[in-house]
């Protein structure tokens, strides 16, 4: 059972994907909600399929129950309800949905309709908005990398160098800043540098000539756009 909004004066309280109480024994058709719902503000889902009132179910029991018209759920079926809470009713304070009630409810992220359905197989991943912008998804931590850097030794005589990123970027749309360094040779040669290839896992550079010493290193910074 999930509450999308905490109760406060004048606010709407929604219970999402609650499992109603009632025997699912192929004969029972009467089920009870945890809190009283506002008339006309309850949705019933049978195995993921939305039912319609009053054709498929009837609001009853002082708007704390509903009765199925045709279906006879058994233990293999799934019955869920989403409804707007009607707040306090009757003369007893215990009939109100208050802050203490909210704290006692179970809150499951994966019960939301626009989230993944399981945590299994997603260890170490994080949540991001999906590409269609209709919900969220789990993805690898490498996608969070925005900037990384390093220093690569360049062999004597090398005319090119391949650099592997410590962590993959989500794509190859990143910029690279390069600089050659040689603090050992008294009069080091100057070389131009050109990026010749780039992927989400690394990039290749070529030099304007063959390195004339083993004392050169390539300083690089890669930053995702």
In order across it, which strands form the biggest sheet? 1-2-8-4-5
**Which stretches are low in confidence, meaning pLDDT under 50 for 5 or more residues running?**
1-10, 89-95
Structural class: mainly beta
User: Helix content range of the residues, please?
Assistant: under 10%
Number of alpha- plus pi-helical segments: 1
In terms of DSSP E residues, the strand content is 35-45%
Report mean pLDDT, rounded to a whole number: 84
Tell me about this structure.
The protein has 225 residues and is mainly β. It folds into three domains: 2-107, no CATH class; 113-139, no CATH class; 145-224, Immunoglobulin-like, CATH 2.60.40. It contains one helix and 16 strands. A hairpin with a 2-residue loop joins strand 4 and strand 5. It is rod-shaped. The chain starts with a strand and ends with a strand. 13% of the residues are buried.
């Amino acid at each position: 059972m999930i509450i999308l909004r905490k109760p406060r004066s004048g606010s709407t309280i929604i219970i999402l994907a609650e499992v109603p109480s009632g025997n699912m024994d192929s004969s029972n058709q009467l089920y009870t909600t945890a809190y009283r719902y506002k008339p006309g503000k309850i949705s019933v889902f049978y195995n993921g399929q939305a039912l319609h009132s009053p054709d498929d179910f009837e609001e009853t029991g002082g708007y704390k129950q509903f009765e199925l018209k045709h279906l006879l759920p058994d233990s293999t079926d799934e019955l869920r309800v989403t409804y707007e809470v009607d707040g306090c009713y009757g003369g007893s304070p215990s009939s109100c949905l208050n802050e203490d009630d909210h704290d006692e409810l179970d809150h499951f992220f994966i019960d939301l309709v626009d989230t993944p359905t399981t945590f299994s197989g997603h260890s170490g991943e994080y949540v991001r908005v999906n590409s269609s912008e209709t919900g969220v998804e789990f993805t690898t931590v490498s996608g969070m990398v925005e900037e990384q850097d390093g220093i690569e030794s360049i062999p004597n005589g090398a005319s090119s160098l391949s650099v592997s990123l410590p962590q993959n970027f989500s794509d190859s749309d990143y910029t690279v800043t390069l600089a050659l360094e040689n603090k050992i040779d008294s009069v080091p040669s100057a070389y131009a540098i050109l990026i010749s290839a780039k992927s989400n896992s690394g990039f290749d550079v070529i030099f304007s000539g063959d390195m004339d010493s083993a004392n050169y290193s390539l300083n690089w910074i890669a930053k995702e756009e």
